[in-house]
């Protein structure tokens, strides 16, 4: 039986200030996609609103714009996937063994409030499937509750883009909230690497989280290991 993974991407193209564009951090999708593809998993893209996915301009520049991201942008079929993502109401959680939330600052706006994504995440998690995120993707987990009303991340050891990294990336004045602090407020045992921007991923049961863009491959590998 072919395992299936649902990759979550954003529909938002700018910060609160429209003069500052953002979107999907492309390599976070491409690195994970390659790992899942090599493991023989089928993948589907979903976004909070369905449809087109804008790309974060900073992810398309050196040193973030690597060969996997370049290959994706050069492939019309792959780019078409980002123009025609499913919406949550088109997704049956029973079809998927895992859900993987990608990042980019854009997700801070449309991931947390998506009740459709929360429903899918809760159903996959509660039947023992893997819930995973990389970088800002954990914003999609911040408001997700389980059937008993508790936060999914409460009491869980996890990671995600650190506030220190927001400051170093010079976007701490642009972001709508402090995601690291919000995760802690939800009861998560937030942890991070000793150094910013290095690969770091954490597994707690069937929750897998990666800290930053450089952690996408490691996080995806841990998802594959958890599914096997």
TrEMBL record:
Name of this chain's protein: Putative intracellular protease/amidase
Record key words, sorted: Hydrolase, Lyase, Protease, Stress response
Presence of the UniProt keyword Cytoplasm in the record: no
GO cellular component: cytoplasm
Database matches in CDD domains: GATase1_Hsp31_like
Span of domain DJ-1/PfpI: 27-225
GO-annotated molecular function: glyoxalase III activity; peptidase activity
UniProt GO BP: methylglyoxal catabolic process to D-lactate via S-lactoyl-glutathione; proteolysis
SUPFAM superfamilies for this protein: Class I glutamine amidotransferase-like
